[in-house]
């Protein structure tokens, strides 16, 4: 079932993707939201039998709710079912249940970006609609990648266009080549930035030149670029990301410690001239970023998994 749906998207090509926009961006038109700011990801804890540990998840969410996040102007919200949330290991019902519980536990004034990407366009649309129904404010859609060799700009534009057309909530593109082996091409990002229901991209590739190019080429659109890791945040600021934002695991520690990373409208550390302090703090982390994240979460008594 999956194969024909993917191949159908591939065969349609760029002309079909562009022509489909003429009919008028159905569900999401006029639903633009400001996604600038910082988004710590919510991890998914597991039991010893590899089941989602909802009890530990709720404990984590309670602890997150008591962190001094609310006074941090740059904290826009949270990401659930991203890479840190280990969504590939969850069933569809588990993915929705996790989003439901996160929405119930976190402050209503914080945006919830929920990862809804699947390999087929139809499955992604269905997951996106379902996540909107359980409280997601925006859908973060990772690139389909199984048929890697066929995932060119035309196929990806068609895929994201159909998802955005039918999504009742804004869509955020998600490019994470370390996990998918696929970078969302810049020309595809520029084309998709013109869709009224696509509000931005989380770029986790770490190519600062690429990030700067995307910022430059989409500057006339209502489109925001989020750096996907702390490792290249400073460099991203240097190429124009100053007023936009970031998503990364280490923000949980940095923000909980009271550090103001960046103002939602472009101030924070950069404007105060203390951005080097942030850079030194991040550079002082152990070599393994994942080990660092785990250590930081343990420091704040957050449960990740118990395997």
TrEMBL record:
| Keywords, alphabetical | Lyase, Schiff base
Pfam families for the chain: DHDPS
Gene Ontology molecular function, alphabetical: (R,S)-4-hydroxy-2-oxoglutarate aldolase activity; 4-hydroxy-tetrahydrodipicolinate synthase activity
- EC primary class: lyase
The reply on keyword Phosphoprotein is no
Q: Which InterPro entries match?
A: Aldolase_TIM, DapA-like, Schiff_base-form_aldolases_AS
GO BP of this protein: glyoxylate catabolic process
Enzyme Commission numbers on file: 4.1.3.16
Q: Name one GO cellular component term.
A: mitochondrion
Mind telling me which PANTHER family this protein's record contains?
A: 4-HYDROXY-2-OXOGLUTARATE ALDOLASE, MITOCHONDRIAL, DIHYDRODIPICOLINATE SYNTHASE
Q: How does it assemble?
A: Homotetramer.
State the protein's purpose: Catalyzes the final step in the metabolic pathway of hydroxyproline.
Q: What is this protein called?
A: 4-hydroxy-2-oxoglutarate aldolase, mitochondrial
Taxonomy of origin reads: Eukaryota, Metazoa, Chordata, Craniata, Vertebrata
């Amino acid at each position: 079932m999956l194969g024909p749906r993917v191949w159908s998207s591939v065969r349609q090509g760029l002309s079909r993707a562009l022509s489909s926009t003429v009919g008028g961006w159905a569900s999401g038109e006029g639903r633009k939201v400001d996604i600038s700011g910082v988004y710590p990801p919510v991890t998914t804890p597991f039991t010893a039998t590899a089941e989602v540990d909802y009890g530990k998840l709720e404990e984590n969410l309670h602890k997150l709710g008591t962190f001094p996040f609310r006074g941090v102007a740059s904290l826009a919200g949270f990401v659930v079912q991203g890479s840190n949330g280990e969504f590939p290991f969850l069933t569809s019902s588990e993915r929705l249940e996790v989003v439901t519980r996160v929405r119930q536990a976190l402050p209503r004034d914080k945006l919830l970006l929920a990862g809804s990407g699947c390999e087929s366009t139809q499955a992604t649309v269905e997951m996106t609609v379902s996540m909107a129904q359980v409280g997601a404010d925006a859908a973060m859609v990772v690139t389909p990648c199984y048929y890697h060799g066929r995932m060119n700009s035309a196929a990806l534009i068609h895929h994201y266009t159909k998802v955005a057309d039918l999504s009742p909530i804004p869509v955020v593109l998600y490019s994470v080549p370390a996990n998918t082996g696929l970078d969302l091409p810049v020309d595809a990002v520029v084309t998709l930035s013109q869709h009224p229901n696509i509000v931005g991209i989380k770029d986790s590739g770490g190519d600062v030149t690429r990030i700067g190019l995307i910022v430059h080429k989409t500057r006339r659109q209502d489109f925001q670029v989020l750096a996907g890791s702390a490792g290249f945040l400073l460099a991203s600021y240097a190429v124009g990301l100053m007023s936009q934002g970031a998503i990364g695991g280490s923000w949980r520690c940095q923000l909980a410690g009271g550090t103001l990373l960046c103002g939602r409208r472009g101030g924070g550390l950069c404007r105060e001239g203390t951005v080097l302090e942030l850079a030194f703090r991040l550079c002082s982390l152990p070599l393994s970023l994942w080990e660092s994240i785990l250590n930081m979460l343990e420091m704040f008594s957050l449960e990740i998994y118990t395997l």
